[in-house]
Predict the 3D structure of the following.
Amino acid sequence: MPERHLPPPFLKEIFIMINASNVALSYGKRVIFQDVTIKFTPGNCYGLIGANGAGKSTFLKILAGDFPPDKGEVSVGSRERIAMLRQDHFAFDEETVLNTVIMGHARLYRLMAEREALYAKADFSEEDGVRSGDLEAEFGEMNGYEADAEAAVLLSGLGITDDLLDRKMKELEGGQKVRVLLAQALFGNPDILLLDEPTNHLDVQSIAWLEDFLFRFQNTVIIVSHDRHFLNQVCTHVADIDFGKIQVYVGNYDFWYQASQLHLKQRQSDNKKVTDKANELKEFIRRFSANASKSKQATSRRKLLDKLQIEDMPVSSRKYPFVSFKPGRPCGDIILEVQGLGKTIDGVSLFQNFDFTLRQGDKVAFVGTNGVAKTALFQILAGELEPDSGTYRWGVTMSSAYFPMDNSAYFTSDMALVDWLRQYTPVTEGETFARGFLGKMLFSGDEALKKTSVLSGGERVRCMLSRMMLSDANALILDEPTNHLDLESITALNDALIAFPEVILFSSHDHQFVATIANRIMEILPGGVVDKMMPYDDYLEDEGVARMREQFA
């Protein structure tokens, strides 16, 4: 568990915490929160976790004061500043990048604007001079003279270069906007920092920078993230939303998982012991209640039975789909041979003279920032895109299943989900089989009749994984399969790919996903391809790899 740099004990009393008291929220008959009372204390970083739809992002908005609960209240000191990572990528389109970051500290930004307007006046009066003195004092107290430099340092750490500082936000790409908005939230040392999926669109280096920033941050942090490695690196506590409540665990994500599973098993074990004892007492009472010599014992056992309490196990909102890939046959000696492969799209060369051979047991992660190149390669190997040059050859024993990052082409019709899946089921199987399969992938009952046109991003991913599972392929190609999935589905997919006995080619921005599955790493760079047979964490730290990456950059 990470150890944060905490404030000295004698200062703790003047540091404010954020409290939620008896917070409740419902959508119609669906209860999201019920009488939630929780304290977030300074010096700690809380990972807010829960299933999709559990209310994580909504709870952050309640804490920020952006969304009113049905009842209850959130309290925070009157002079404490809350900063939240905003998701509206167009709200600051007319502002410069630098100004957008500084606007994260609204009070300082208003002060700067008043100060500039005052000094721009042609008729600077004595009253203006007095006011300017007050402004300068307050400006200095708020570290205003360092604002531009601090904003630039934050942006640099997140991969936004100095040449972009004076650009307007509307000129930036989507991923760059996300980084600027993250810098906006981090700016000015807020007392309470609320981050909703802060690692989205960040590369490995930027995520490492953010981890270090949060490690050194002394105030209160509350984070929603699907990145398990990130949560493990930064969190001192985990706040788990389930059963309409929020339970706080000390430790990072892995500590929470172990503790919650142990707690669940203990409750189930305790319930089983009570149930077994109750059944034993009932059997004795049934057998001997009419027996005069045993009637006192039967009465005594009836009293014991009345005292036994079998705890009702609440239904968790956390569901794990059943993901398992079973190859129809093992791979032969020749799996995949790629020679001189080249592809250019829209005048941009993605890769040239690309050679590699896939071997038995290879689980290859394609990493790096060039997502277009990775997607193009996967499309070529799946037979959906023609290369400009070179060849590739799958062995005669091989059959592949492809998971595209953009799956919209598979959901253009408005058919029921059960009919959609039947397109990929064995011809010998009917609707009952398809419904059963969908049930294992968390589409139970009437959900199997949902129209494919209304499926969410996560539901579409589970459908595509179902299609792959039914293929019996011995080579899996997956392009960012963890996008749109909740932590439970990511964990299920992660475990399934670890257990898969044949070959995998995949890409993912999920550090733990890559680190636990891959035994071979490839990175497509402008000047060549780095190809190493080693675990992902070793790849990131290897000095020889670093030199190759610089050479090919």
Observations:
- The domain at 336-414+452-552 is CATH 3.40.50.300 (Rossmann fold).
